[in-house]
Design brief:
By secondary structure, this protein is an alpha+beta fold. It is built from five helices and twelve strands. It has two domains: 190 residues, BirA Bifunctional Protein, domain 2 (2-Layer Sandwich), CATH 3.30.930.10; 41 residues, SH3 type barrels (Roll).
């Protein structure tokens, strides 16, 4: 199938979403950014079907400021947690690292990326793209630097989940959370994220494209920005927009 081909069939997407396959080796996030920048309608899901990983990206068109749109990243995280919860054995647990990392049964296992048409938190972006990358297999147990803090889904009892099934479920559950966010505001999204938060109340290191900081993770403000207690006793804010990649 040629890169950029719009799919009307399998994988099956929920209403308001449609698929665009990319070639092996291509980055779905980059493909979605290109499509968004050239005026594609929101709801496009670019993806790469790969037995080793879930790789996809969703194009959104916020009608609010970038700061108030960024919690869509949390909606995508909830979408992954709910999707895996529906497909994986019941003992598999998912938690979130701020701003967009996943932990499965306590170990790091992929996460989300994001890009937007602007980086000004107070501006209204033309588009916001959220990408997901979750490894299924391929982790070499003898690789240099391998630690118990990194895992893949196959090592956590999820070897029988087809990547296409996880892609479809992620889209469905993310759409549910996006609708919750649009209809009810941030409260439910915020509460559900805190319930799955990793390292809340503990020292953390933040290394993002737009911010580097360290301190104790105290919580989130109303739009999902990190509240960080600094060593000097003051509390600072690390903005969620700091995770945006340069386009």
């Amino acid at each position: 199938m040629a890169a950029g081909a719009i799919l009307d069939g399998a994988p099956r997407f929920p209403p308001l979403m449609r698929g665009m396959a990319v070639l092996p080796g291509d980055d779905p996030l980059a493909a979605a950014i290109t499509a968004a920048a050239t005026g594609t309608d929101p709801g496009l899901v670019s993806y790469r079907l790969d037995p080793a990983a879930l790789e996809a990206a969703l194009v959104l068109a916020p009608e609010t400021t970038l700061e108030r749109a960024m919690p869509a990243v949390f909606c995508a995280a909830h979408g992954f947690a709910d999707a895996l919860g529906a497909l994986a054995p019941p003992e598999v647990g998912v938690h979130f690292e701020w701003p967009a990392g996943f932990r499965v049964n306590g170990a790091r296992c992929g996460g989300l990326r994001a890009a937007a048409s602007c980086r000004d938190a107070d501006a209204e972006p033309d588009w916001l793209v959220i990408g997901i990358s979750v490894p299924f297999r391929g982790l070499d147990p003898d690789a240099p630097g391998r630690t118990a803090d990194v895992t893949v889904l196959a090592e956590e009892g999820c070897a029988d989940i087809p990547p296409v099934a996880l892609l479809e479920a992620w889209c469905r559950h993310t759409l549910v959370w996006l609708n919750t966010f649009l209809d009810d505001g941030m409260r439910k999204v915020h509460e559900a994220w805190r319930a799955r938060a990793h390292a809340m109340g503990k020292p953390v290191e933040v290394n993002l494209p737009g911010a580097r900081a360290s301190g104790v993770f105290r919580g989130l403000d109303e739009w999902g920005n990190m509240l960080l207690a600094r060593p000097d006793g003051t509390t600072g804010l690390v903005p969620l927009v700091a995770m945006l990649e340069t386009t």
